[in-house]
Design brief:
Helices cover 42% and strands 15% of the residues. The protein is of the alpha+beta class and 650 residues long. The protein folds into 3 domains: 184 residues, no CATH class; 231 residues, no CATH class; 138 residues, no CATH class. The termini are far apart.
Length: 650
């Protein structure tokens, strides 16, 4: 019950935002309120006379905050009307006439409930107006006359005509009431929210012990759904299966299993729904959200790579566009990594200064247990500084140079190449993904399970990445022929290198530290040797078309034999070397000299460290990457120097 209590506390800490729309963000719902997608909007005056109506387009404008009861919020069948805005079958007195389906009991139940609210002391002026209008029983007639609804040739309401893909008979309706001074949009009216909450609080049942708050208060056995999105019917707390032995055998009634106060349940579920929609990760049927529990203050998103983890945080000031100026100045000619790291660390330090000593951070992960049930698969809470210490440790030591997409200041996205930590989903795809189109894809259940296993590595300092995930990613990286060059290099090789580095020696601050501490590791040395022969063949095959663009090249021998090389390195190396004899003639003197120098250096270390066919560990992958990047920079620098000398020549 800790997560329920923390979410309820979060709701109390954000009371100023209840019912308030801000910049198109999700609304923190008032108690006893929910949402639905409205298809029709009806405008009436304060006396209950019809004025206008319109169809609503699908999108954010259709999302409507509505008052609900315990029964109506949890309804799936039977008669359980919402108190104000609802489906046509509940609010239209002439529904049976036009639809041919007898729903008189639905309308009667709705009107009886609405009348009770309209005549109470907590009735907003718009409520009696809606009651007076609907009492006339002409809603569908008015909508047909206004050409919002259509009838078939027999004068019946037809579902062949759709509104937002929804048949007409199942359309949801909301109201605008023109008062004395201004129109009331009932789904946005703060005063109406407050009055209904006060009205419904008087309708709650007997008091019991609430397991979440520890107080004796009015409890509920029907809890909200729509947690991950407005169409989500799955619930976190449910005990309505009295014949399926959900709780029998352990308890005689569901109240003995769990008892949650109505107020605590509403606050917790509304806060969770709001947090997920505002800043949560929702993919692969799972939902994960991290938040500051004691105040509305943004926290880094643990589900994103370290570059995008701080998006939309006003307290984190970093402009990626500054990198363009830096590169144009010539200072970042060969590497913008140092500049980026300095700017990023400066922004992090500025953000850290705004975290208070008593701040509390919580993270929760939800998964679909069944079609109608959600389960909490991970929950943790910690101090704000403890969380930042853990996530910065993760971002500092699980990073590798790769290309990521970031938001541009003027809108849209751009790609930058820098050292960053891959997201947990990137890691799961690197381990189990298959390239079927432009990107990697994998089974959603496998992705969810892998991401869940990675969460403690992020939030608990010192927890290593499970070795089986790294091995699976290393196996994928050992099959470059199954993917495009960019996906293999950027989304698999770079990601697995980041994971290997994180599980290595603590205190590494640069990628080169990996080579420095593994100078004589045979797997690293074999990886470096593979990079030399791969790069040599790439340079030998380098050709340009008439426009100066690099022509498409065939796959190198190193990549063709890659998987065999990782299993039998010494034998496969001889095969690769034999196949490249003809390519050496295409290299210029400088290239031939450098390749011999690099090969000789590596072989000198490898000669006494196991030049045999023992299978390589995953450490050969960072060895390959770092050697390849080193050679690319060396060749680029040489080419730039030659270009400058030609320009300066008289």
């Amino acid at each position: 019950m800790a997560w329920l209590q923390t979410l309820a506390q979060t709701y109390d800490a954000c009371l100023a935002q209840v019912g308030v729309e801000m910049d198109g963000q999700a609304v923190l719902l008032p108690i006893s309120h929910s949402t639905f997608n409205a298809q029709i909007e009806v405008t009436i005056d304060g006396e209950g006379n019809f004025q206008d109506s319109r169809k609503l387009e699908k999108g954010k404008d259709a999302v409507t905050v509505i008052p609900v009861t315990e029964d109506s919020a949890a309804r799936s069948s039977g008669i359980a009307p919402h108190p104000l805005c609802d489906k046509l079958c509940y609010i239209a007195g002439d529904y049976s006439v036009y639809a041919g389906d007898d729903k008189a009991k639905y309308f009667e139940a709705y009107m009886e409930q609405l009348k009770d609210w309209a005549e109470s002391d907590e009735a907003h002026p718009s409520v009696p107006a809606v009651y007076r209008y609907l009492k006339k029983g002409t809603l569908i007639h008015d909508l047909v006359t206004d050409k919002v609804l259509e009838l078939d040739d027999s004068g019946r309401l037809t579902d062949h005509t759709k509104i937002q893909g929804q048949g007409q008979t199942g359309a949801n309706v909301r109201f605008i009431v023109h008062g004395d001074s201004k129109p009331w949009e009932v789904w946005k009216n703060q005063e109406l929210y407050k009055k209904y909450s006060e009205y419904y609080q008087q309708k709650t049942g007997g008091k019991k012990l609430c397991y979440a708050s520890g107080k004796v208060e009015a409890c509920s056995d029907k809890h909200p759904s729509k947690i991950r999105n407005s169409a989500d019917k799955a619930k976190l707390i449910s005990g309505n299966d009295e014949s399926g032995f959900t709780y029998r055998g352990r308890f005689t009634s569901k109240e003995q299993a769990v008892s949650v106060g109505y107020d605590a349940s509403q606050k917790a579920h509304n806060a969770l729904r709001w947090l997920i929609q505002k800043q949560g990760y929702t993919r692969d049927e799972s939902a994960i959200v991290c938040w500051m529990a004691n105040r509305d203050f943004p926290v880094p998103d643990a589900m994103k790579d370290s570059i995008n983890a701080y998006n939309d945080m006003d307290d984190f000031i970093f402009d990626f566009d500054d990198m363009d100026t830096y590169e144009a100045s010539g200072a970042g000619k060969y590497d913008t990594g140092k500049y980026f790291a300095e700017q990023f660390n400066h922004a992090v330090n500025g953000y850290m200064g705004k975290i208070n000593f008593d701040d509390k951070v919580a993270i929760i992960a939800l998964d679909a247990a069944t079609t109608g049930r959600l389960s909490v698969v991970y929950y943790d809470e910690m101090g704000g500084k403890q969380y930042m210490d853990a996530i910065l440790n993760w971002q500092q030591h699980c990073k590798w140079r790769r290309t990521v997409r970031v938001e541009k200041s003027e809108g849209g996205k751009r790609r930058i190449t820098c050292e960053c930590t891959p997201s947990p989903r990137d890691m799961a795809l690197a381990a189990f993904g298959v390239q079927r189109s432009e990107w990697l894809e994998a089974d959603s259940k496998l992705i969810r399970a892998t991401v869940k296993r990675l969460l403690p590595c992020i939030t608990r300092k010192g927890v290593r990445i499970p070795q089986d995930i790294i091995r699976a990613a290393a196996q994928r990286a050992s099959m470059p022929q199954t993917m495009s060059d960019f996906v293999w290099y950027n989304d698999v090789l770079c990601v697995v290198c980041a994971m290997i580095r994180y599980n290595g020696k603590e205190g590494n601050t640069t990628m080169d530290d990996f080579l420095n501490e593994n100078t004589d590791d045979r797997s690293v040395l074999f990886g470096r040797l593979l990079a030399v022969y791969d790069f040599m063949e790439q340079r030998a095959m380098l050709e340009f078309d008439e426009e100066g663009k690099v022509q498409e090249r065939r796959m190198t021998n190193a990549k063709r034999y890659w998987n065999a090389y990782s299993s039998r390195p010494a034998k496969t190396f001889k095969t690769i070397k034999q196949n490249l004899i003809a390519y050496e003639r295409r290299l210029n003197n400088y290239q031939r000299m450098k390749f011999e120098e690099w090969t000789g250096e590596i072989m000198a270390h490898l000669a006494g460290n196991g030049f045999d066919n023992t299978a390589l560990s995953e450490n050969y992958l960072p060895g390959y990457y770092l050697q390849m990047e080193y050679m690319k920079k060396a060749v680029k620098k040489k080419n730039d120097e030659q270009s400058e000398s030609r320009v300066d020549a008289p």
